[in-house]
Amino acid sequence: MVLKNFIAFEGIDGSGTSTQLKILSERPEHEKFFITAEPTSSPTGVFLRRILKGELTVEPRTAAFLFAADRNEHINGAKGIQEQIAQGKIAISDRYTFSSLAYQSVSCGWDLPYKLNEDFPLPQILFFFEISPGVALKRIKNRDFIEIYEKSEYLEETAKAYEKVVSFYEKNGECGKNGRMKIIRLNAEDAVEKTAEIIWSYMAELPIFKE
Known about the structure:
One of its GO terms (cellular component) is cytoplasm. By secondary structure, the protein is α/β, with parallel strands linked by helices. The chain has helices at residues 17-25, 43-52, 60-76, 81-86, 97-108, 111-117, 133-140, 152-172, 192-203; strands at residues 2-10, 33-37, 90-94, 122-130, 175-176, 179-180, 182-187.
């Protein structure tokens, strides 16, 4: 199932998804947006952020279950994505199921993350931020702290996994009563302004902006 007015930003750490969300939040149309991210601010999401910071350690398969639980709250919980869309918003999430399939598949294989996430709705548009791990790592080094996945070897593996995930959906993206998920590949090494223009050129075509 494809969920209308739901957009996901995906890419390895340092690809610029957060920067583009900030630009969208400053657009004149920002009141129509529900800008969100995973892990969420729910108790499960807070716990996951502690894991990402290296404060807590869990077995890789446990992390896969936790990310799926947090995602369920994100989609179906009170004030979550489904509810916000029902109220006339466009939901834009920094990370979604594709992150789990990329990051968790590196540490515990493809089958478990896919099984845990296959029933979640697909976004109407997936923006995939393509960037070389080397460039991404240079950006990450300017941050106040480095998360457990933000290491050179892991970024290399995750970049390969992301390509596998996106290619899988390009070939097998679901078609349903609400249409097919659109996948837009972005060169995340381009100027920030150019990337923002491309993103908006697709978003501006959504019916909500023509009503």
